[in-house]
Each structure stands twice: as C-alpha cells, then as structure tokens.
Amino acid sequence: MAVLSVPRRARAVRVLGVVSASAALALGTAGNALACDISEFSAEAKCDGDKGVITVTDVDAAGIPATVTVYLENNGADVKKVGEQEVKGSREGTTITFAEKWKPNAEYRIHVKAAGYVDEDIKPNLVTPATACKKEEEPPSAPPASTPPATPTPSASPSKPAEESESPAPEPSESQSTSPAANVPAPAGDSNLAETGADSNTGIIAGIAAALVVVGGGAVFFGMRRRGANSDS
C-alpha cells in the first residue's frame, strides 16, 4: 500500500504542475495580446474648419500610457517638432489632436514610446491631402479694358423721314384765318367810304369837284359883278 501511494502522489503533483504551467502560459499569452503595440496607433491629417490638425488614435485596450511626438519631415530629415502629448488607449479608441497649419502633400513622422512595450514610428509616414484647408486668396484681377460702344445695327425697314412721319399741321379756323389788319379801325375821314365800299381814289375826286365848285362860284360872282357895272354905266 505504501509503495503504491508514492507513485500516485507523484502523479498528482505532476498533473498539478502541468496545469499550473498551462495557466501561466495562457496568462502570459493573454498579457502579450493586451500589451501596447505600434499597430494600435494611427494618424490622420484633417481640417477643423479652416485650420489644419493632425490626429493620433490609440486603440490599446490595456490603456498603457504612451507618448506621441509629431515631427515635420523634409527629404527624410526632421525639420521641426510639431508637438508631444501623452495618450492612454481604449478599446473604443482615444484620439489626441495636434494643431498644425499643414501644407498640401507635406510629410510628418509620428513617434510612439510606451516604456517596456513600444518605441518606434508609425509606418508609413503621414502625408497630408493635396488640398489645403483654406484656399489662399487670389490677387484681384485687373479690371477689363473698356470696350467701345457697339455700333447700332440698322433695322430691316428704314425709318420714314421726319417730314413724312410728322402729322400735317391743322388748318387755322375762321377766327384765326382773319388778317389782323381787318381788326384795325379805319381813319375817321374814310369811315363812310369804307362802309360804302368805295376805293381810295374817291377822296381825290371829291377834292377836285370841290375845287371846281369854288372856281365856278368865283366865275359866277365876277360875272354878276361885271354885269352890274355895265348896267350902271
């Protein structure tokens, strides 16, 4: 009985050791799966209104703190350090933002460092879009040269002359057609002649007749006087 109990006890210990080793291996594998990794980081160049920004997202479910540093690149060399921030990832993803007035087709290097887990760049480098967030204002264009006024096109049918187009003047009425001279009063001496319709020679004839009457009267007077002288003698 004692001889058989030793192997059984050893076998039980051996099984327990195998189970413990398997559990430790499983826990180690799980820990490595939850550890921070560069593949859990991503970067993007976007626009916030008319301002450019660079965002970095960490989807590390373990939430291991990591430091993210952004550099502007030119021909494979760092031109300037844009900024540096710390991020703690999450299963849904944690995003940090760097304000940067990036230019189209610019290149940025993003480095991630989590002590004991990762210390490397996000590959490939970030290249910004080909269109900027806000277009540069174009200089005002020169005003167009003044063009001469267009020559009027003659109409198909020529217009009538002014003489033909004008309506004939209305004929004067009877009150308007009377000569103004007819309204002028005649002289006092010629009023009877004008009323009887005699012409302007009547006055001359009347004057000659009167002169003849005077001459005739004088002749009769001298004749009678001469006759009286003769009778006295």
TrEMBL record:
NCBIfam families hit by this protein: LPXTG_anchor, strep_LAETG
Biased composition (Low complexity): 172-182
Protein name: LPXTG-motif cell wall-anchored protein
Statement: the UniProt record of this protein carries the keyword Transferase: no
Keyword Transferase among UniProt keywords: no
Residues spanning the signal sequence: 1-35
Keywords from the named record: Membrane, Signal, Transmembrane, Transmembrane helix
Residues covered by region (Disordered): 133-198
Biased composition (Pro residues): 140-152
Residue stretches spanning the membrane: 204-224
Organism field: Streptomyces paradoxus
